């Protein structure tokens, strides 16, 4: 089952961004979603598309993101225009670099200052309806998450009754944009504003009636297979032991300052953050082998109740802003490796920018998962 909303393709359309100092078109575009949707619609035997979106309100978003940051996202564009900002959208020109912040104690309310305080790069352009778009992506993801609980209960019953084998776990997909895994509790960046996967994860942990095997909250293992490190998801859950955050990503690319295998979590969270940085030479075989090892060494022993996948296909060999060698034949193998975990899984769309192959690549992962 695929959860999406037409708002994912109509809202949040910045005209340009800056890459290597040059103005380019905005890579995180509605066409990305249209391409994926078109592929899934033309495979009706495998995919059922749901346009139903429930409203979970502000509460689940506030559990992950700070109030002042959310207020900023909501009001930034209007203030920006009022102060003479360019209509393409809010982009910082001054970001509080940590070497300055050692001395600086100021937190000015000026929009030019706030645009830097709440953003870490030049790719998260805030337009008139960015807040609404990010809100919508979070609500679609939550809608899918609620259904994950339902289908997972059904799955457990069927397994107990012996009508379904554990080898065929159910799966859902939230087809959303803007993506989320670079958004931290109080900073946007990397095309991300609200962290959809983190919001969904925290919501599952917070449900009072959802009990895990030990009587505590359900346990979630996050598998981040986007090409880029999910600095946002890592930051949000760095000091807790639920969820387990695991990521395969490039060892030499954006976001540059996080993603090392030495980042293992802190306090109660120590040992529950697993980063596996990989080189640009990474092929289908390398990727699948590393993923299978990650699953065997870390995901299976964690004994989660649910898997949430940050699904990026910017690992593709022809992705215009990334650099691995994964081919369209590799994606079904990746999906199959995830299926072999044997747990109900929610896939949430993150990156992937090769429009021509987005459908077949995302579809390949999902089909590989379905087996
Ligand atoms: N030379 C996601 O995939 N610009 N975000 C990087 C690369 C930002 C990627 C520049 C890339 C953000 C969700
Ligand atoms: Zn990415």
Automatic annotation (TrEMBL):
Keyword line: Hydrolase, Metal-binding, Zinc
Pfam short name (any one): Hist_deacetyl
Stored InterPro entries: HDACs (IPR000286), His_deacetylse_dom (IPR023801), His_deacetylse_dom_sf (IPR037138), Ureohydrolase_dom_sf (IPR023696)
Keyword Transferase listed: no
Cofactors demanded by this protein: Zn(2+)
One MF term in the entry's GO annotations: hydrolase activity
PANTHER family in the cross-refs: HISTONE DEACETYLASE 8, HISTONE DEACETYLASE HDAC1-RELATED
Official protein name in the record: Histone deacetylase domain-containing protein
Species assigned in the record: Entomortierella chlamydospora
């Amino acid at each position: 089952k695929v959860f999406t909303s037409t708002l994912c393709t109509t809202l949040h359309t910045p005209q340009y961004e800056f890459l290597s100092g040059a103005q380019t078109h905005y890579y995180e575009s509605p066409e990305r979603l249209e391409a994926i949707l078109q592929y899934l619609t033309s495979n009706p035997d495998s995919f059922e598309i749901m346009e139903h979106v429930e409203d979970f309100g502000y509460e689940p978003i506030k559990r992950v993101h700070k109030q002042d940051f959310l207020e900023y996202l909501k009001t930034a564009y209007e203030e920006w225009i009022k102060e003479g900002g360019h209509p393409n959208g809010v982009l910082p020109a001054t970001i509080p670099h940590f070497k300055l912040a050692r001395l600086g104690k100021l937190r000015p309310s000026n929009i030019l200052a706030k645009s830097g305080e709440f953003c870490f790069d030049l790719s998260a352009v805030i337009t008139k309806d960015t807040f609404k778009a990010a809100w919508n992506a979070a609500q679609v993801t939550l809608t899918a998450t609620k259904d994950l609980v339902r289908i997972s209960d059904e799955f457990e019953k069927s397994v107990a009754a012996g009508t379904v084998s554990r080898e065929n776990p159910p799966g859902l997909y939230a087809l959303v944009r803007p993506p989320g895994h670079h958004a931290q509790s109080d900073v946007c960046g990397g095309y991300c504003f609200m962290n959809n996967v983190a919001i969904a994860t925290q919501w599952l942990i917070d449900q009072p009636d959802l009990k895990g095997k030990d009587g505590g909250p359900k346990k979630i293992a996050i598998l981040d297979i986007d090409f880029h490190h999910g600095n946002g998801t890592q930051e949000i859950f760095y000091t807790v032991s639920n969820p387990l955050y695991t990521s395969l990503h490039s060892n030499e690319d954006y976001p540059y300052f996080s993603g090392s295998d030495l980042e293992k979590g802190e306090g109660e969270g120590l040992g529950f953050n697993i980063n596996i940085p990989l080189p640009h030479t990474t092929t289908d075989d390398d990727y699948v082998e590393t993923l299978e090892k990650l699953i065997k060494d870390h995901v299976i022993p964690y004994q989660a109740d649910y898997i949430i996948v940050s699904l990026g296909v910017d690992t593709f060999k022809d992705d215009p802003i990334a650099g691995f060698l994964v081919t369209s034949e590799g994606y079904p193998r990746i999906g199959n490796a995830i299926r072999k975990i044997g747990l109900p899984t929610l896939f949430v769309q993150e990156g992937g920018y090769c429009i021509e192959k987005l459908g077949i690549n995302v579809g390949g992962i999902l089909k590989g998962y379905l087996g």
